[in-house]
Amino acid sequence: MTVLVTGGAGYIGSHTVWSLIEAGERVVVLDCLSTGFEWAVAPEAILYKGDIADQALLNQIFSSHEIDTIIHFAGSVAVPESVANPLKYYENNTAKSRALIAAAIEARIRNFVFSSTAAVYGTPVSSDPVLETAELHPESPYGSSKLMTEIMLRDAAFAHPEFNYTALRYFNVAGSDPKGRVGQSTAGATHLLKVACETALGKRASLSVFGTDYPTPDGTCVRDYIHVSDLANAHLKAVDRMRQGGDSLIANCGYGTGYSVLEVLDCVKRVSGTDFTVNLAPRRPGDAASVVANAQKAMSELDWIPQHNDLEFIVKTALSWERTLSV
């Protein structure tokens, strides 16, 4: 059987495609390449350039390949942009996901893995690690668009018992392929570690820390950083579980360990051997003090064992990839 990966030319998608290929899977990638890169797709995968809502293209893919599983990454991911242009996010992340889900059910594709996000939780009510049963209060159109897709998957799976899904709620994805094949390559990325690595290598003059008066040990926001390769592996585990008859599942993907903004910057400075300018700025609206995953469900249900729960390793791989982009 074959796995269809939408958004397989993007950051997380390309890492997952490489992992699937290494596991001996046959892989088809569907990506419009609006933010992804053709060179990032493993050469053993078959790439279709197009839109996930293009019914004729989906029919062509489904008739040409024995697809039994879809891993759905394609979508828009910038929270500030979603606030400024919400309808783009409801189109790309919700409406087009609905079209893909409908096509999958029509084609009798049984397994669907969805790239969701911790943004569905909004600001946690406490600093304790977040469980999947926590109240869902997305605070951006991005988070809302992902939650809407989770709801569609839940309802579709109820109406079509032969259709199962796994929604993985990512926390802060970082790092790059330890073998140096792919990494975070999007220009203008806003992720802290990406920006810090760019600053350490002189690609930016400085970076800003937004808020130093949070109720955390050093006053800056705390987040749970997960290495992209461990996240890719969680998707493979989800595919295996559903193929073995596992029912639908929602699971957090993180390590359960939080690092503050200043701790991340100190690690980047130490690993890179460079100092750089850090500007202290006021808080940004909507930033929670601490967001850390309780990922026990993923570990127990998926038999997922993270291999790279080490901030220094995450930083080393991110810096290595950033240097590659400089060549």
TrEMBL record:
GO biological process, one term: galactose catabolic process via UDP-galactose, Leloir pathway
Pfam families: Epimerase (PF01370)
EC number: 5.1.3.2
A GO molecular-function annotation: UDP-glucose 4-epimerase activity
Names of the cofactor(s): NAD(+)
Reaction it catalyzes: UDP-alpha-D-glucose = UDP-alpha-D-galactose
Gene3D superfamilies the UniProt entry points to: NAD(P)-binding Rossmann-like Domain (3.40.50.720), UDP-galactose 4-epimerase, domain 1 (3.90.25.10)
Listed name of the protein: UDP-glucose 4-epimerase
Species this protein is from: Rhizobium lusitanum
Lineage, opening ranks: Bacteria, Pseudomonadati, Pseudomonadota, Alphaproteobacteria, Hyphomicrobiales
Gene name for this UniProt entry: galE
